[in-house]
Structures are given as structure tokens and as C-alpha cells.
Design brief:
The complex is a heterodimer of chains A (163) and B (201).
Chain A (H helix, E strand, L loop, with lengths): L1 H22 L3 H18 L9 H20 L2 H6 L1 H11 L6 H9 L5 H11 L4 H8 L3 H22 L2
Helix pairs in contact in A: 1-2, 1-3, 1-7, 2-3, 3-8, 6-9, 7-9, 8-9
Chain B lengths: L2 H9 L5 H40 L7 H31 L4 H42 L4 H49 L8
Helix pairs in contact in B: 3-4, 4-5
Classes of the chains: A mainly alpha (163), B mainly alpha (201).
Chain lengths: 163, 201
């Protein structure tokens, strides 16, 4: 199992990190969440029977871990208020050359609801509607409708952000 | 902005290399620590039970009530260990449920904790008080009935005072943290589980 965990880590770490960043979006916390997600993957791996894709399995763990993680913070409202500040810190720390549009998108995503973040996170990773439905236990139709609504919501949020 | 066009750029973002290394090391360290702690806890639990059974048990064999209390303590330690073990396994299994089911699991857990505070803790206090009172009475009745009843009264006073402040603190915590959290989780579960009109077709 350890070998499988290593494989998962090597293959999925960037994806895991990106989704953790969506679900939390705070540099100081994303590292902790990433670590907790890895531990939970390691602990839950013996129960993986191969009935579904390993990505489906991992993404559920990420979404569920972030739920628990947020519960523990007990300061959800304050976090929301500090989102903007956190993003600025993150931006400063992560000095990759992001395009303006990606930058704007990343500023808008934290303003979505947790379920919307999970959906758009999976969508941006290239999951099909069916796969997103399997992860979040939604019908394909529902996923399609939700993605369309989230896109509209994001467009509005980005428009608001522009000076 | 076209989100579809950004997907490729999005997927090219990578975890910072030092963080990846650090996190992997931390995860491995934590795993080692958990294993070490579990091993020590197992030894401690087994050692305590062995000590009680081997050294203490022969000394109290003449007192039926004390033997019953002693066995009850052993049983409770074992039961608690089993419950914790079962809950740990359940928590690992719950991790891979869909978010809606996971939230239901979390809500159930919180409600169970509330039930423990409001129902099982007072019940535990009454049982503990009754058993301790019986033991005290059994020990002291030979000297004086007044002393026996007096010590029982002091015991109950002590238990009620300690329990009241503990219970009050827990209730305050529940009111400030657990109940709002429960509402928040229920709201989030509703959002995860909501069905769009598209599902009707």
C-alpha cells in the first residue's frame, strides 16, 4: 500500500494541491490542508477496492477533508473577511507568471460556495461531467447546469473585480 | 473571459517543490508518530489491565461489591477502547463518502456528542454516584451509620458541584460552537445535495 501511496503522490500531488488551494485559498492554511489530505489518503487507501477511478476517490477525500478542516477553524466568517488579504499574500508568495485572466479567476473562485468550488475545481482539472457527478454524487444533468451557473457567477464576480 | 481556455493554463500550475518535499516529510513523520503513539497506548492499556487483574484483583476477592466495581471498570476501559477503535475506522471510511453523505456523518457525530453531554453524562454521574455511595456505605456502616450517610452526602455534593460546572461549561461550548456548526453543516449539506430542475427531465 505504501508503494501505491507513493505512486499516487507522485502522479497526483499537483492536482491535489490545486484543489486544496481552491477549497481553502489561504497560503498558511493550504499547506496544512495539503498535509492532512495526504494523511487521509494514506489512511483510507486500504479501503480503496478499485471500483472507481483513483481520482474520484482522492477528490472525495480532498473535499471531505476540507469540510472537516474548515469546521476546525471556527472562524469561517473572519476568514471570508480576510480572503482578499490572504490572496494578496498568496500572490506574493507564489511568484509564478500567471496571466491576468487566470489571476482574476483565482481571485473570484474563493467567493463561491464550497460545493461550487468543488465542482469548478474538478471541471478545471478536466474531469468529465460524469466523473464530477461520481465524485459529488450528482447527476450528469445537474453537474452541467451547475457548471453553467458557476461560469455565469464567476463572470459576474470578475466583472465586479475590475476597476 | 472563457474559462475553458484557461483550463490548460490552470492545469500547468504546480505545487512549489520545497513545499512538496516538506509536506511529504511531515506526512511521513506524522504517520510514524501516530504508529508510535498507538503502540504505546496499546502497551499502556494492556499493562493497566494486567496490573489490575494480577495484583489488585486477588486483594479484593473477599468483597463482592468491590469485585463488581472492579470488573465494571475493566469492562468500561475495554468498551471505551473498542468504541474509539471503531470510531477511528468509521472516520477513515467516511472520508471516501460523497460530500453529502460525509456531511450527514459529521452531523450525526455532532448530534451524538450533544446527546452525550445532555443525557449520557448525567446518567453516568448518577451511576457513578450510586456505586460509590454503595461502596462507602458498605465500608463505613460498621463504624457509624451517621458517618456513612454524612460521607455519602459529601460525595454527592462534590459530584453535583463538579458536574454542574463541567456541564455548564460544556453547554456554553455547545451553544457557541457546536450548534452554529451544526446549522452550518446542515446548510452546506443542503447545498451539496440540492437538485436542479434539469434532474426532473
Amino acid at each position: 500500500m505504501h508503494h501505491s501511496f507513493e505512486q499516487i503522490y507522485q502522479q497526483q500531488r499537483h492536482k491535489i494541491y490545486r484543489l486544496c488551494r481552491i477549497m481553502i485559498y489561504d497560503t498558511s492554511q493550504v499547506d496544512d490542508l495539503f498535509q492532512e489530505v495526504l494523511i487521509n489518503i494514506w489512511k483510507s487507501l486500504p479501503q480503496f477496492k478499485g471500483n472507481s477511478k483513483v481520482e474520484t476517490y482522492i477528490y472525495r477525500i480532498i473535499v471531505n477533508t476540507s469540510i472537516t478542516f474548515n469546521n476546525r477553524q471556527k472562524r469561517l466568517v473572519k476568514q471570508q473577511q480576510h480572503l482578499q488579504k490572504d490572496y494578496q499574500q498568496y500572490k506574493h508568495a507564489d511568484s509564478t507568471n500567471q496571466s491576468t485572466e487566470l489571476d482574476q479567476l483565482m481571485q473570484a473562485i474563493p467567493k463561491l460556495e464550497p460545493n461550487e468550488k468543488a465542482i469548478i475545481g474538478c471541471y478545471l482539472e478536466g474531469f468529465s461531467y460524469k466523473e464530477i457527478g461520481a465524485i459529488l454524487e450528482l447527476t450528469t444533468n445537474h453537474v452541467g447546469v451547475k457548471i453553467s451557473r458557476i461560469k455565469t457567477k464567476l463572470a459576474k464576480l470578475i466583472k465586479k473585480q475590475r476597476p | 473571459m472563457n474559462i475553458n481556455q484557461l483550463m490548460n493554463e490552470w492545469q500547468q500550475q504546480e505545487i512549489p517543490a520545497p513545499l512538496a518535499k516538506k509536506t511529504m516529510e511531515q506526512a511521513q513523520q506524522l504517520d510514524k508518530r501516530i504508529r508510535k503513539e498507538n503502540t504505546w497506548l496499546t502497551y499502556l492499556l494492556a499493562g493497566t489491565i494486567f496490573f489490575l487483574m494480577y495484583f489488585v484483583f486477588p486483594l479484593i476477592l473477599n468483597h463482592t461489591l468491590v469485585v463488581c466495581l472492579f470488573m465494571a471498570v475493566i469492562f468500561l476501559i475495554g468498551l471505551q477502547a473498542m468504541i474509539l477503535w471503531h470510531r477511528n475506522i468509521q472516520a477513515d471510511q467516511a472520508m471516501v463518502l460523497s460530500p453529502t453523505k460525509y456531511l450527514t456523518y459529521q452531523i450525526k457525530k455532532l448530534r451524538y456528542n450533544l446527546l452525550v453531554t445532555n443525557f449520557f453524562t448525567p446518567l453516568y454521574l448518577v451511576l457513578l454516584g450510586a456505586l460509590m455511595s454503595a461502596y462507602q456505605y458498605h465500608l463505613l456502616q460498621a463504624y457509624s451509620i451517621t458517618i456513612a450517610w454524612g460521607s455519602i452526602a459529601i460525595l454527592w455534593l462534590f459530584l453535583i458541584v463538579v458536574f454542574y460546572f463541567g456541564w455548564k461549561k460544556q453547554r456554553q461550548k455547545d451553544k457557541e460552537e457546536v450548534i452554529p456548526l451544526l446549522k452550518d453543516l446542515e446548510e452546506r449539506r443542503g447545498r451539496f445535495a440540492e437538485r436542479s430542475t434539469a434532474d426532473a427531465y
